[in-house]
Design brief:
The chain is an all-beta fold. Helix content is about 0%, strand content about 55%. The strands form eight sheets. Strands 35, 36, 37, 38, 39, 40, 41, 42, 43, 44, 45 and 46 form a twelve-stranded antiparallel β-sheet that branches. Strands 47, 48, 49, 50, 51, 52, 53, 54, 55, 56 and 57 form an eleven-stranded antiparallel β-sheet that branches. The longest helix is centred in the N-terminal third of the chain and has 13 residues, at about 5-20. The protein is globular, with a radius of gyration of 30 Å.
């Protein structure tokens, strides 16, 4: 989405911009990608939804690319992470195991990292790798964006990073104004279909088809004045027959048939899917790939805002299709799962409301909750009845949910009784109200700024001009859904994590801890004998490290890097072992601990031999976590298991520029200029090889015969389309070949005196065969330049 041409939305955006603090979005660099620009929050600010998703901070609008992939739901959305107004669009990202508990993730698509206009779009999971874009063990997440045409971006690491297909080239070019592509799998014809809004001769959508998500063929156009931007299209069953629903951003829809090329409908006028206004329900999109086969929808609620965020998403609703005398209609009902937040409640049955009867909810105090109720309208004498939501001592409510018996409306929207009764479900959050009734035929989404102060949490029933039987009602108070997942800390340890001491926050590089004394961040997983490893970056802290076999307070063993120049194994009351090592502030170091009974060994920076080999019997088992002492440090890649960066045997590896961390999948390097990660093993004549991937950015390669600063020879894969052999001051040789971001390449180098050869892949012949005499010997390592890179399987022969 961009600033909309529609008068309603232009007015809405203008109003919001006038009310909100100014902020300017910014583009990023590959060395900083993926960006996590969010300040800490408890998600408890006024009007912040406790079970409605809102961005940790910044502006949010349209949902984009909603998919279920690799065991979790991914919610992408239009986003300005640097301000509270619409500005240069990014794609925000959040994940959930159940559509209730959401965890904010780093930016998915970022200007200047991912090319093109990153406006609204859709996404799919390419389980069968029809695109040929798969490079690892995960099913690719493939998303579509851009304006006046469509570009493709894809992720092979479950949404942690995205690459742009063919450098962002438009796979579809549309001469007129267009945006908001949505893609779905056409099961009957076993191919992909794309629907995209275009203003060719007025509002409407183009349809395209593809066998592989990369090559698209124009199929048809559906013209409709109501069909303005953010289209969605999905199948629903009705009486054993598959029908297709086509929607617009404003929640209007028609039901029809799709033959794989053309969409047709008999509906003369579109229907409304939700009674919310454009500021309360807009640009709704459905998930693809739901494991239960459901069609689940989320929309943008623009009207809600707080001190650090603007906009939120509606609660996920399942869509179905029912027949009515007036034709097929879509129903919306909230997905199950809110019971996981249940914190209490009250049930009442067979009560009379009005006529002086006692209010069954008179003593209730509730902030966020779900309310279900059934009124017997057939036996009612009251003209109007309903609930006062968030009432204060004076009886005034922040919102009054009213059924008008004569008009047959609920909150002013049409709702006829069914079998003489009205049954409804209201989701009441701090800034959001959603009401569902009549089996989902009635859906009403709106923003309400509920007062969450202690004296404004009442729930009241009322009836005017008579009484109404309340057949049943159930109030379920709901706890917050936030804080269950780890945003940036990569780990295979079980959560939830907790911080018994110190302050721990999410940053791009992992989990940052700050403490004057000893601070601990502990997982929920305990163990006895194990291999435990992770990366530690000393910032202002005097010490930081890995904690294991700990109790709930953090008391246990800790392997600590100390800025005094030591690696220390300690427990409360005793320093078990100390080893002198050179350390520098700001560097990232890898620690690995192996425990076997009373024996504890500690390795540093992928060294072949442990620097500490000691025994102690104070703690036999306990929790795994991290420690910081006397300042601030960041930890990352906290993993149980032997698998780590597969490098050649060395005493120790040293970073020289950039940031270097290690995870089971390999060595990650990020650098704005030239950054090197160097082993302490040197060679003169040799063969050196490894697997390299430029995740995003310009270049990465194998460095050899290098000095301690990294100056030496480097064989570099450059995404401009070259394999280059270079040294400081000279490009020795260049071989032109496509180099695709996110794809892994095998490089092999052989040095024999002044002769330097480079092989690419499994080719028998070198692609570079050159001579240079500047460096006769030196150490081996890896290079990154203006990029994020991944290196694996480094071997010296």
């Amino acid at each position: 989405m961009r600033a909309r041409a529609g008068a309603l939305v232009v007015a809405l955006v203008a109003t919001l911009m006038a009310l909100l603090p100014s902020g300017t979005a910014s583009a990023g660099t590959p060395a900083e990608y993926p960006e996590f620009p969010y300040p800490p929050t408890s998600y408890s600010e006024p009007y912040r939804g406790q079970f409605h998703f809102s961005s940790r901070s910044g502006w949010m609008n349209d949902p984009n690319g909603l998919v279920y992939a690799n065991g979790e739901y991914h919610f992408f959305y239009q986003h300005n992470p640097h301000g509270l107004e619409w500005d240069t669009m990014h794609w925000g990202h959040a994940t959930s195991p159940d559509l209730v508990h959401w965890t904010q993730k780093p930016i998915a698509l970022e200007p200047d990292v991912n090319p093109g206009t990153l406006f609204s779009g859709g996404g799919v999971v390419d389980k069968d790798n029809t695109s040929g874009l798969k490079t690892g063990g995960y099913d690719p997440i493939v998303v579509f964006s851009n304006t006046d045409g469509v570009s493709v971006h894809y992720s092979n690491d479950n949404g942690k990073t995205f690459q742009s297909y063919d450098h962002g080239r438009k796979v579809i070019t549309i001469p007129e104004q267009s945006r908001d592509p949505k893609v779905f799998w056409d099961t009957a014809r076993k191919r992909w279909t794309l629907v995209v809004w275009s203003d060719k001769s007025g509002n409407g959508v183009h349809f395209y088809t593809s066998p592989n998500l990369r090559e698209w063929t124009y199929a048809s156009r559906y013209q409709a004045s109501w069909l303005f931007e953010c289209p969605d299209m999905f199948p629903l069953q009705l009486d054993g027959r598959q029908r297709w629903v086509l929607t617009s951003a404003s929640d209007q829809y028609v039901v029809g048939d799709f033959d794989g090329t053309t969409f047709r409908t008999d509906m003369a006028q579109p229907q409304k899917m939700d009674f919310g206004s454009g500021s309360d329900f807009y640009a709704a999109q459905t998930f693809t790939g739901d494991p239960g086969g459901r069609i689940v929808q989320m929309a943008w609620q623009a009207g809600n805002r707080g001190s650090v965020w603007t906009g939120n998403a509606s609660f996920p609703a399942e869509l179905k299709l029912v027949g009515t005398p007036d034709g097929p209609r879509v129903t919306r009902t909230p997905v199950p799962g809110l019971d996981s937040l249940a914190a209490g409640g009250r049930t009442v049955r067979d009560k009379v409301v009005g006529g002086g009867a006692a209010d069954p909810f008179a003593s209730v105090k509730a902030d966020a909750y779900r309310l279900t109720a059934t009124f017997d309208v057939g036996r009612a004498t009251a003209t109007r009845f309903g609930f006062g939501l968030h009432t204060g001592p004076d009886g005034r409510a922040d919102h009054t949910l009213v059924y008008d018996r004569a008009a047959q409306t609920l909150d002013g929207q049409p709702l006829k009784p069914r079998d003489g009764k009205i049954s409804l479900t209201a989701l009441v959050d701090r800034g959001q109200l959603e009401v569902f009734a009549d089996g989902g035929r009635y859906s009403y989404t709106r923003n309400v700024n509920f007062d969450s102060s202690a004296d404004s949490l009442g729930l009241t029933t009322f009836a005017e001009g008579g009484t109404v039987p309340l057949t049943q009602a159930r109030l379920t108070t709901l706890a917050t859904s936030w804080g269950r997942g780890e945003s940036t800390l990569l780990s295979n340890l079980q959560g939830p994590w907790r911080a018994p001491r110190g302050a721990w926050t999410d940053v791009t590089g992992g989990k940052r801890g700050t403490s004057g004394g000893d601070g601990f961040y502990l997982s929920a997983q305990s163990g006895a004998d194990a291999v435990y490893q992770g990366d530690v970056t000393l910032e202002t802290a005097r010490a930081a490290g890995l904690t294991f076999r700990a109790d709930a307070t953090g008391a246990g063993y800790t392997a600590t890097l100390d800025t005094s120049g030591v690696l220390k194994l300690w427990r409360p009351g005793r320093e078990i072992a100390v080893r002198n090592v050179p350390l520098a502030a700001g560097e990232t170091h890898h620690l690995k601990v192996r425990t076997e009974g009373t024996r504890i060994r500690v390795w540093l920076d992928h060294g072949a031999d442990p620097l500490i080999d000691a025994t102690d019997d104070a703690y036999r088992e306990g929790l795994f976590g991290a420690n910081v002492f006397g300042g601030t440090a960041t930890v990352q890649n906290l993993y149980l298991g032997d698998e780590e960066f597969a490098g050649f045997p060395a005493g120790r590896w040293t970073p020289r520029g950039g940031s270097w961390t290690s995870a089971p999948e390999g060595l990650h390097g990020r650098s704005a200029g030239d950054g090197f990660y160097l082993g302490d093993r040197a060679g003169t004549d040799f063969a050196y090889e490894g697997d390299l991937q430029v995740v995003n950015g310009t270049a990465g390669g194998l460095t050899f015969r290098a000095t301690a600063s990294g100056a030496g020879y480097t064989a570099t894969l450059d995404t401009s389309g070259v394999l280059k052999l270079w040294r400081p001051g000279r490009d020795i040789a260049v071989y032109r070949t496509p180099v695709v971001e996110g794809r892994t390449y095998h490089l092999r180098v052989r040095a024999d005196g002044s002769r330097l050869r480079v092989w690419l892949g499994d080719g028998a012949d070198p692609v570079i065969d050159a001579t240079d005499t500047t460096y006769a010997s030196g150490v081996f390592g890896v290079n990154a330049y203006d990029a994020s890179v991944l290196a694996r399987n480094l071997r010296i022969g």
